[in-house]
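User: Hi! I'm working on a homework problem where we have to compare a predicted structure to a textbook description. Could you give me the structure for the chain below?
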Amino acid sequence: MDQDTPTRKSSADRPTVAIACGGSGGHLFPGVAIAEEFSDFGIRVELFITSKKVDEAGVSTLKDIRVHKLPGKPFSLRGIIPFLYSLLTSYTESRRLMAECRPRAVVATGSFACLGPVLAARRAGASVYLHEANSIPGRAVRLLASSVDRIYHFFPGVDRRLSSGSCLRLGMPVRRQFEPFDAVACRLQLGLRADGPTLLVMGGSQGARPLNRFLFDNISAIQQAIPNLQIIHITGPYDYQQSLDLQKRRDISLRIITRQFLTEMEFAYGACNLALCRSGASTIAELAAMKVPSILVPYPYSADGHQELNARLVSESGAAEMCLQSQLEVDTILPVMKKLLFDLDARAAMKTSLEQWHFPDAAGRITEDIIGHLGLPGKRRTPEFTFQRQRITDTENS
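Assistant: Happy to help. Predicted C-alpha cells:
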C-alpha cells in the first residue's frame, strides 16, 4: 500500500498510472523500470502482472507500488479457448480494478497478458501507451497499434512495421541497478574468486535447455581449454539439479555457481567477462548497460523469428557475436569464447559498439514523455541508492 509522507500528496490526490506487464522477464522488467520512474515523479502506480513465478519474484522488492495479479495465457491456435477465457477474465478484473483506481493512462509492454488491461483502459477512457522491445513487433502490439496514443521502441525500423503514426525510439528501459559495478565486489557477492576469467551462461527468465546441455556436454573440453575459468550458470527450473550435480564431479575443478533464477542480475553481469545467452531485447539492453561482451544464441522458435533478427542486428553492429542454436558446437564456440575473454582489443571494440545499444535513462525519458503528453504536473525526485548498491558497498568495505 502507499505510504504518505508530509512532503508528498496523499494517495487520493495523486494522479494514477497503471503499468501492464509480465508473463516473461522481458516484458516484466521494462514495466517495473517505468513504474519506478512514475513513482519518483510522485505519481501513484498500479502494476498489473501475471501470477507466474518470474513476475512474483521480479516485483518482490518494490515499494509504494500496488501489484495486481491477472491471468495471462499466450495466444496459440491450439490453445485458443484457454486464451480467450484468460483474456475475458483479465479484462473483467481489470475493469473492476480501474473503476477503483481510475488511472489517467495505461502503459503496456507488449505481451498478450497486457491485452485485458489495455482493452479495459480504453473502455474507461484512459490514454494507452505501448512499448515494443523487439526488432519485429509482437502480435499484441500489432493488434493494438492503430488505437493507442503512442508507441515507444528499442530497435531501429520498428516504426515502419506498425500502423501507428506516433512512434518514438527511446530505447529499452532497464532497472536502475544495471550500471557497471566493480567486478571483484560482484564476484565475492556471488561466492566466486576475485580474479580469473568468468563466464555467464543463461537463457531467458525460464532458462534455455540447449544452452544448459551445451555446458553439460562440453564442460571437460571447456575446462581443458580455459582451466582457470569460473562459471555463473543460471539454469531456469528444469536443469537446476543437473547443474548442481556437475559441481560434484571429481573431474571438474572449475568454480561453478548455480542459480535457478537470479533477481539481482546486475551482480552476474558485473562479475562476468563474457555472457553466453539468448537474444531477447531485455538481455541485449542489460548487456549494453553493463558493457558485457556476449555470444548471442537466438531462441529459434521465437515469434516471427524476432530473436534471430535481434541478434543479427546487434552482431552486425559489432556489439556481440551470434551463433545459431543449430551451430552450437564446442569447436565453434571455444575459439570465440577465448577471443572475447582474452583478446583485449576485441573486448574493447565490442564494448565500444555496445554503446549504441545503450539508451541511458530510457525509462525516465519514456515517463517524462508520457507525463508531458498527458499534461500532468510533476517534478522528478532524485532516486535513492538501491538496496543492491548498498550490498555491493558493504561487500567492498568488509
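For your comparison, note the following. The chain has two domains: 11-172+359-389, 183-357. Residues 11-172+359-389 form a domain with the Rossmann fold fold (CATH 3.40.50.2000). Good luck with the assignment!
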